[in-house]
Design goal:
The structure is a single chain. By secondary structure, the protein is mainly alpha-helical. The chain has one domain (29-118): Arc Repressor Mutant, subunit A (Orthogonal Bundle). The protein is 46% helix and 8% strand. It contains 6 helices and 3 strands, in the order ααααβααββ. The chain has helices at residues 16-24, 28-34, 42-47, 53-68, 78-82, 88-100; strands spanning 74-75, 104-107, 115-118. Strands 1-3-2 form a 3-stranded antiparallel beta sheet. A hairpin with a 7-residue loop joins strand 2 (104-107) and strand 3 (115-118). Helix 4 (53-68) packs across helix 6 (88-100). The chain is elongated.
């Protein structure tokens, strides 16, 4: 009678190959994003000389969003940058750097994502 109620854990075990496949699978959003590209104006390349990697990452993200929206100000959320490994604090440092370099104007909004106006396009 107890045989009918026992759970065979072996039926649910994953092989090492199955574990590797699940860990290696890339979410659809990431795969789609990797197929996209960014055009960078030479004026931006010149003004970004000596910038950190995080600043470059934020700059490229802004250019892509600006193109995707067909112009106008860009709302820069943290989630979009988190995918690229840019923290909230790094985003703000990068925006300050880009503003200092004259590439963007940042409209700071309390408790909301900033609106970014791109220049030199």
């Amino acid at each position: 009678m107890s045989d009918h109620h026992e759970l065979d854990v072996g039926k649910f075990a994953l092989t090492n190959e199955q574990v590797r496949q699940r860990l290696a699978s890339v979410p659809f959003k990431m795969r789609k994003r990797r197929q996209q590209f960014v055009k960078v104006p030479w004026t931006w390349v010149d003004k970004l000389a000596g910038a950190t990697g995080q600043t470059y990452c934020v700059a490229l993200c802004l250019l892509h969003l600006h193109w995707q929206q067909k112009g106008g100000p860009v709302k820069l959320a943290n989630g979009m940058l988190r995918i690229d490994g840019v923290s909230r604090q790094s985003k703000w440092r990068a925006l300050s750097d880009l503003e200092h370099r004259g590439l963007v104007t940042v409209e700071r909004r309390p408790r909301r994502s900033p609106m970014i106006h791109l220049s030199h396009l």
